[in-house]
């Protein structure tokens, strides 16, 4: 049976991995060269700790404060666009205690399973990609924020995670020689990380060897269909026929589906990263500067800093003020770093595919019986890649997904 996947990001590749294993004949189409997507320059975390979605109580009031600061980590670009307005309204509606209470068990189950699956994939493919399972430290500068993180730690423990709340001195012991200026940290010990671009490159090589076909610089522009069935994808290089079609086109998925009469709400959430190749000191553990919302990941080629969430549709331009905002926050937490540590660095930007409620869209559409959508993973597309791939594989085999997908329905906002 033939499967065509649109998108060679983490979601497309993980789907291809499982589909290929089950004997499907897989072709992946991408309009780029497969290395210019969001799955390359991100922070590389596998984070069961992130079991609370972005849309949660407190985000609206905090977000409104951030809106006026050009260096803040969160921003929604004001616009008269109707889709953005609908997205914003649904984001607001999803930011309640009761909605979060429904989302947490699903997200937690998916994150935990995916965390196990990534180790299985790495063992099977023999890819290393700098994978490290020393956990994630949430560094806090204020006692209030440390207390909030400790509450999150209690929630994570209820879901079986191992978490320690540490004083600053205890946190420092985990990274001897790496100075921190904080009141303490929470150590989510089940989290892990890798160097994402290495993983992506290695997985593509592995999949090619297993017989997956990659068709780069191929833009999918339309579909041919009839009687509720997709017959072919129309691309700028001709038609691609298959039995089943997977749309894993990241932040661009809504644009494509909307053209096909399938309405989903999805916005690009722009984030930046940069790598300090030769940092003053290299920490051994990945961390997040909690108040500043900056991720810090020791990678194979240096120390990567990543941050900001600018909801602004499909704009990938770099705003130097926000990059500066990330850089300015670092010496506050890590006194061995200064402005000089970041001179001449080239920032990268990526678009996180964001749904209003922070849960991905995974499933079939009402209109077509052989069209599967897998996107909307926002800040968790790396963490959730493996489990999403497995769910796509369930759907392609006409099975009910092994994870309850009630909250993940593709057309839940139409
Ligand atoms: C700064 C930053 C840090 C992050 N850190 C983490 C992290 O630590 N952990 C984590 O889990 N997640 C993280 N994320 C989120 C994660 O990177 C994304 O959720 C994930 O990469 C999305 O993968 P994807 O496959 O859905 O989309 P993408 O990687 O964007 O891939 C989509 C692909 O579809 C192709 N495409 C689109 N339209 C078409 C078309 N019409 N025809 C053909 N091809 C098309 C594109 O060219 C692209 O290659 C981070 C994101 C950012 C920006």
Number of DSSP strand runs:
20
What radius of gyration results from the CA coordinates? 21 Å
Q: Which small-molecule species are bound to the chains here?
A: flavin-adenine dinucleotide
SSE ordering: EHEEHEHHEHEHEEHEEEEEHEEEEHEEEH
Q: How many structural domains are formed by the residues? A: 1
CATH class reads Alpha Beta
Q: What are the low-pLDDT stretches, counting only 5+ consecutive residues below 50?
A: none
Number of helices: 10
- CATH domain fold name: FAD/NAD(P)-binding domain
| Alpha carbon gap, first and last residue | 31 Å
Shape: globular
Question: Could you report the average pLDDT, rounded to the nearest whole number?
Answer: 95
For the sheet with most strands, the description reads: 9 strands, mixed
Content-based structural category = alpha/beta
> What is the fourth-level CATH superfamily?
FAD/NAD(P)-binding domain
Report strand %: 15-25%
């Amino acid at each position: 049976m033939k499967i065509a996947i649109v998108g060679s990001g983490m979601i497309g590749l993980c789907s291809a991995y499982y589909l290929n294993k089950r004997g499907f004949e897989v072709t992946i189409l991408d309009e780029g060269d497969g290395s210019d997507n969001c799955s390359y320059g991100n922070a590389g975390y596998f984070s069961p700790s992130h079991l609370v979605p972005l849309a949660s109580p407190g985000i609206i009031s905090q977000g409104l404060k951030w809106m006026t600061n050009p260096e803040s980590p969160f921003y929604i670009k004001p616009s008269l666009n109707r889709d953005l307005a609908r997205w914003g309204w649904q984001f607001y509606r999803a930011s309640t205690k009761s909605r979060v209470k429904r989302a947490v068990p699903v997200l937690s189950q998916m994150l935990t399973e995916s965390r196990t699956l990534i180790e299985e994939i790495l063992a099977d493919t023999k890819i290393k990609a700098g994978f490290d399972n020393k956990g994630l430290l949430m560094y806090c500068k204020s006692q209030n924020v440390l207390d909030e993180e400790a509450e999150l730690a209690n929630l994570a423990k209820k879901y079986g995670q191992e978490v320690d709340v540490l004083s600053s001195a205890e946190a420092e012991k985990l990274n001897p020689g790496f100075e921190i200026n904080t009141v303490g940290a929470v150590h989510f010990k089940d989290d892990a990380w890798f160097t994402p671009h290495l993983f992506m490159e290695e997985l593509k090589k592995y999949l090619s060897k297993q017989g997956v076909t990659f068709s780069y610089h191929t833009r999918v522009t339309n579909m041919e269909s009839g009687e509720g069935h997709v017959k072919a994808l129309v691309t700028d290089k001709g038609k691609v026929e298959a039995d089943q079609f997977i749309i894993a086109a990241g932040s661009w998925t809504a644009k494509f589906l909307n053209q096909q009469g399938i309405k989903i709400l999805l916005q690009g959430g722009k984030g930046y990263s940069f790598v300090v190749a030769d940092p003053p000191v290299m920490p051994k553990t990945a961390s997040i500067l909690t108040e500043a919302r900056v991720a810090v990941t020791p990678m194979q080629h240096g120390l990567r800093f990543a941050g900001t969430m600018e909801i602004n549709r499909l704009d990938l331009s770099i705003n130097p003020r926000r990059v500066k905002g990330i850089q300015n926050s670092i010496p506050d937490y890590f006194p061995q770093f200064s402005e000089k540590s970041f001179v001449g660095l080239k920032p990268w930007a990526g678009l996180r595919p964001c749904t209003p409620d922070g849960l991905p869209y995974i499933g079939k559409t009402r209109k077509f019986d052989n069209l599967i959508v897998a996107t909307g993973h926002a800040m968790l597309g790396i963490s959730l890649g493996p489990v999403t791939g497995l769910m796509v594989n369930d759907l392609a085999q006409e099975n009910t997904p092994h994870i309850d997908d009630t909250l993940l329905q593709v057309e839940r906002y139409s």
